[in-house]
Amino acid sequence: MPDLIFPDPVSPDPRPELFDEAVNRALTYALRLGVPLDKPDRLRGGLEVWYLKTRFAYRVPMADVLSTLATYPGLNHQWKGGAAGRWLPR
Fold first, then answer.
1. pLDDT mean over 43-58
2. What is the pTM of this model?
3. What is the pLDDT of the chain when averaged over all its residues?
4. What residue spans of the chain are helical by DSSP H?
5. Relative to the CA of 76, which of 9, 34, 64, 69 has its CA 20 to 30 Å away?
6. Residue 79 burial (CB < 10 Å; 0-12/13-18/19+)?
7. CA-to-CA distance for 51 and 53, rounded, in angstroms?
8. Which residues lie below 8 Å from residue 26, measured CB to CB, with a gap of 6+?
């Protein structure tokens, strides 16, 4: 029988790369459309269609993506490290 690999049960974020991908793709989409990242209601409205159409996004809570985007420091940064990650220069 093959060994099964399970996420670390202590880890609150078993798929950090999925969270990173969701945040970075949402960022690209918002910037392309000119959605203001510092206005929560407009950001949510601007990303709702993206969230519904993106196959993997439903696995990451939209509220978490929005709160992360609200901390975006500016151009040439990307999110890395899952929900507990940080913005890093590209």
1. 89
2. 0.81
3. 86
4. 16-33, 40-53, 62-69
5. 64
6. buried
7. 6
8. 47, 50, 51, 57, 65, 69
**Angle subtended by helix axes 16-33 and 62-69, to nearest 10:** 60
Q: What does the alpha-carbon distance between residue 83 and residue 5 come to, in Å, rounded to a whole number? A: 21
What average pLDDT does the segment 62-66 reach? 94
How many CB atoms are located within 10 Å of the residue 18 CB?
15
Q: What is the pLDDT of residue 14?
A: 56
* AA letter at 17: E
Residue 65: exposure state from Cβ atoms within 10 A (0-12, 13-18, ≥19): buried
Q: Helix-strand-coil percent breakdown of the chain, rounded to 5?
A: 50, 10, 40
Provide the total of helices (H) and of strands (E) in the chain, helices listed first. 3, 2
Report how far apart, in Å, the C-alpha atoms of 17 and of each of 39, 44, 52 are. 26, 22, 20
